[in-house]
């Protein structure tokens, strides 16, 4: 079996090399025509067979010469070769090997280069001949002719499928790249609002220090003035860049401050009201103010995860958990819905946006089916050099209305190292 497969592969490679040459039809037609005439001359046994010899030569040329036209017009070449073949058979003259090989080559090229509605009608004469003559030769001729046509059609179909798959992949990659660029532009706009506040504070504090510090040397005043000028220049450049991003995204500027984890309770209330199901916020660890970029990223991840839960698991209970560790903020959003169906796509543009946001602050994001049921979104956001405020009481949990305290399934409770939330 392996030897036969290797022989078939070598034959296919040799065929592709031969058909890849620009003049292969003319070369093949010449070689097969000469071989067919040699075979015809071998049947001549006396000088009285001149008429028979002339007909055999014409039949050999009629069966092989159309192969030279197969690159320009495969249907014309196949029809001419088919006609010459049946004239030869009807005259009672044996079909030469060269003519048979040329006919099969033309039928294969016809199936490869032309659609089914053009290629398959060429098989009708072979079907009629097999039905009328009913001999082993007619059946064999019909079988090999159909095999050559169908083999060409199969290769044509595989090529079309590969081309379509490549086109679909390019389109999918383009859509993903477009979504990623849009999400990065939105992230840049939001971070601008966060960073612009701090740069503005630098400029204000530098100017205030220059004006209010008693006995400030002239050199110190100049340094404070330079700090303020540098901060204002940076702010101007950031706003110019933001204007370009907003023009590319086709959005209008907003004046609202970017959200942080302080507004997470309000987001949970809105999600609970719109979904009509239990949505709980559970906080573990020592709560402390974090870097504004980290807080904005955590807020947006929770917001997108709740939106996905309302869209794909409507009515399912959702747990939102924040775990303040010493080195990272861990965010988990899990619902107890049915989870993604088997074989579904691994993620859409919403999940792509969450990954972009997590990567922006050096974090990671995991999404997929939860261990027992439902869907899980888990992000780990490093704290870096964020300023740590005095710790608040451990295991702070935001209160929920009594009707919202609906229990999840037993498996839907997410344990933490610091203890199970109750």
TrEMBL record:
Name the EC number(s). Answer: 2.7.13.3
Entry keywords, A to Z: ATP-binding, Kinase, Membrane, Nucleotide-binding, Phosphoprotein, Transferase, Transmembrane, Transmembrane helix, Two-component regulatory system
Entries under SMART domains matching the protein: HATPase_c
Q: Which domain of life is it from?
A: Bacteria
Per its UniProt record, what Gene3D superfamilies does this chain match?
A: 1.20.5.1930, Histidine kinase-like ATPase, C-terminal domain (3.30.565.10)
Spell out the SUPFAM superfamilies in the cross-references. ATPase domain of HSP90 chaperone/DNA topoisomerase II/histidine kinase
One Pfam family of this chain: HATPase_c
Task: Name one molecular function that GO assigns to this entry.
Answer: kinase activity
Histidine kinase/HSP90-like ATPase domain residues are 293-385
Database matches in PANTHER family: NITRATE/NITRITE SENSOR PROTEIN NARX-RELATED, NITRATE_NITRITE SENSOR PROTEIN NARQ
Q: What is this protein called?
A: histidine kinase
- Which organism is this entry from? Phytohabitans maris
């Amino acid at each position: 079996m392996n030897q036969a497969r290797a022989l078939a592969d070598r034959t296919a490679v040799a065929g592709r090399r031969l058909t890849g040459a620009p003049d292969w039809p003319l070369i093949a037609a010449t070689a097969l025509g000469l071989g067919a005439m040699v075979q015809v001359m071998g049947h001549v046994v006396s000088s009285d067979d001149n008429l028979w010899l002339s007909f055999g030569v014409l039949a050999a040329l009629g069966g092989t010469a159309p192969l030279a036209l197969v690159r320009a017009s495969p249907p014309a070449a196949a029809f001419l070769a088919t006609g010459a073949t049946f004239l030869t058979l009807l005259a009672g003259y044996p079909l030469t090997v060269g003519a048979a090989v040329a006919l099969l080559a033309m039928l294969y090229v016809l199936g490869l280069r032309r659609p089914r509605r053009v290629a398959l009608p060429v098989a009708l004469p072979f079907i009629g001949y097999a039905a009328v003559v009913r001999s082993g030769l007619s059946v064999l001729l019909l079988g090999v002719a159909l095999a050559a046509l169908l083999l060409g059609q199969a290769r044509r179909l595989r090529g079309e499928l590969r081309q379509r798959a490549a086109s679909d992949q390019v389109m999918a990659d383009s859509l993903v790249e477009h979504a990623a660029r849009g999400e990065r532009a939105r992230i840049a706009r939001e971070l601008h609002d966060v960073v612009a506040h701090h740069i503005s504070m630098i400029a204000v504090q530098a100017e205030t220090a220059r004006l209010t510090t008693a006995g400030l040397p002239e050199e110190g005043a100049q340094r404070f003035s330079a700090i303020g000028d540098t901060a204002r220049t940076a702010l101007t450049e950031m706003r110019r860049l933001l204007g370009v991003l907003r023009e590319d995204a086709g959005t209008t500027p907003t004046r609202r401050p970017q959200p942080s984890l302080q507004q997470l309770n309000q987001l949970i209330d809105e999600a609970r009201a719109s979904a009509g199901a239990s949505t709980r916020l559970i906080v573990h660890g020592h709560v402390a103010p974090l870097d504004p970029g980290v807080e904005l990223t955590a807020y947006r991840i929770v917001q997108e995860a709740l939106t996905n839960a309302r869209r794909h698991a409507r009515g399912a209970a959702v747990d939102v958990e924040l775990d303040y560790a010493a080195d990272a903020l861990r965010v988990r959003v899990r619902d107890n819905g049915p989870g993604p169906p088997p074989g579904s796509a691994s993620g859409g543009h919403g999940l792509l946006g969450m990954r972009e946001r997590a990567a922006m602050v050096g974090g990671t994001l995991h999404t997929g089916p939860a261990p027992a049921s439902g869907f899980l979104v888990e992000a780990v956001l490093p704290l870096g050099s964020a300023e740590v405020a005095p710790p608040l009481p451990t295991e702070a949990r935001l209160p929920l209305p009594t009707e919202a305290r609906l229990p999840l399934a037993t498996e839907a409770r997410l344990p933490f190292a610091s203890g199970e939330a109750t």
